[in-house]
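The protein record reproduced below.
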Amino acid sequence: MALPALPAQPAQTPWPAAGWPTDPLPAGLDEARFASLIDQAFVTPDDLGETWAVVVVHGGRLVFERYGVGRAADDTCRSWSVAKSITHALTGILVGDGRLDVFAPADAPEWRAAGDRRAAITLDQLLRMSSGLKFTEAYVPGEPSDVIEMLFGTGAADVAAFAASFPLAHAPDSFFSYSSGTTNIVCRALARVSGAPGAGFEAFMRERLFEPLGMASAVARFDGAGTFIGSSFVFATARDFARFGLLYLRDGIWRGRRILPEGWVDYARTPTFQQPDCVDGPYGAHWWLDLAGPGSFSANGYEGQYIVVCPDRDLVIVRHGVTPEANQPLVQAWLKDLAALFDS
């Protein structure tokens, strides 16, 4: 299946520096419908919950932003699982350096015993949530949850070791199962190959990703073992999350400099196999697919954190807030409706 083309980048393509280049909403856009959708988020939210920030970037320019009561452009927002897509970028940087092969077995000390079938699990399978590891990704209070135990319980001191301790439930590459644990196994592998856990890896993140993009607000959280908790914890302003989305919309290039290796964005948006009865939406490699229509891809986080990238519209939409998990389909439908206004 051919992937939709990413938008062309003519010489005058704007890039955000300390601030964003701005434009009004594009001519021909249904401004009354746009205003109604924004009111739905901020004035009469109903089932959308509380919206903290909405940022819209079209053609590389900031065409709209709004913040909730008591919030402003300089306030940071939590990523939750949006951080997984940042982990994808960090993986790509090391692939581009020639230090990683995502199709080789992942570096996990727990899987080295003779006959351990987990030793065959690749970074690609971890990035595609197809490792086959048993892991319960649940957020309902009172129900068994490996992700809550990993982030806030017995696994919190060493999230990767906790996740890597689980047995196989399926043969690798045969079953899709969304798992924050697999992301943290990836993050430890990144630190190990870079030789820089903890503060050293934080410096790597800043030097190779955050600083080139101007994401000055970005703060990543690490566990006691020095592993970036890339499943869940990056804090940044909505504008800085939009910068990250723009990097992917621009094929991993920033101001003429290639940050991500050629083809890495396409790798992110290449569909992963999912079993016929899978209830999750389509997935690529640490990015979700088609939320705002065919060809779009998105970084999605718990309680309604989203970076939505629409190549055919040259569009990035960022939304942050607090929405009950059961109501996420309503937020996703709202994002799809907002993006559709830019079809013209």
